[in-house]
Design brief:
mainly alpha; about 0% strand; DedA-like; transmembrane helix; transmembrane
Length: about 210
């Protein structure tokens, strides 16, 4: 898998693939957008990585700053698309949410957090599996204002993109091997996702005290 993705990083189309994957994974969380970002960053780092055995790298490697900007921008665009869908979802989306106790709780908690200016939940949920979908759709469904949601979406996109790019780039720089740096970085990304999922599902302090 990593070899296949690695070959894609030698093409300028990697930027379009990364952007498309990030935009769409708000609706299809199974898309490997984080893996793509990490692999592209690792390819950029491999050109300057110092290892015991020199490893040939493609002449064309992704630009780290451009990768960071594209990943952040695509994340925000995807969030806003889901946000708009949540606002206009109608009765069908209402029924889908009502059938899921988890979605209902997440949407209620999100509305309260945004109303109090505590949009840090948006940033945390960006790292959780499907958390971005729940948060973006929920913000739209609860009729939050764009001015309340957008700044937190931008911050979430920057945090997620920065973390993913840093994992791939510095992991490969430190380990000196692209495949190992990529593999361990992906593990670190999923670990952060598991922690974020735990924090999102945990009831707010007031609810925990009342219980």
């Amino acid at each position: 898998m990593f070899e296949t993705l690695g070959s894609l990083t030698a093409s300028p189309w990697i930027y379009a693939l990364v952007a498309l994957s990030i935009v769409l994974d708000v609706f299809l969380p199974v898309l490997p957008s984080g893996v793509l970002v990490i692999t592209a960053a690792a390819a950029a780092a491999a050109a300057g990585a110092a290892g015991p055995v020199p490893v040939p790298v493609p002449e064309q490697v992704p630009d780290i700053l451009l990768l960071l900007v594209i990943a952040t921008t695509a994340s925000v665009l995807g969030d806003m698309a889901a946000f708009r869908l949540g606002r206009r979802g109608g009765a069908r989306l209402d029924r889908a949410i009502a059938r899921s106790r988890r979605l209902t709780r997440a949407h209620e908690r999100l509305g309260t957090a945004l109303a109090r200016g505590g949009g840090a939940l948006v940033v945390i949920a960006r790292f959780a599996p499907a958390g971005r979908s729940v948060v973006s759709l929920g913000a739209g469904k609860t009729q939050r204002k764009v001015a309340e949601f957008l700044p937190w979406s931008v911050l979430a996109g920057m945090a997620w993109a920065g973390y993913s790019v840093a994992l791939g780039y510095f992991g490969t720089q430190w380990l000196g091997t692209q495949w190992l740096g990529t593999a361990l970085s992906v593990v670190a990304l999923f670990t952060a996702g598991a922690l974020a999922a735990f924090l999102v599902r945990r009831p707010p302090p007031a609810a925990a005290t009342a219980a």
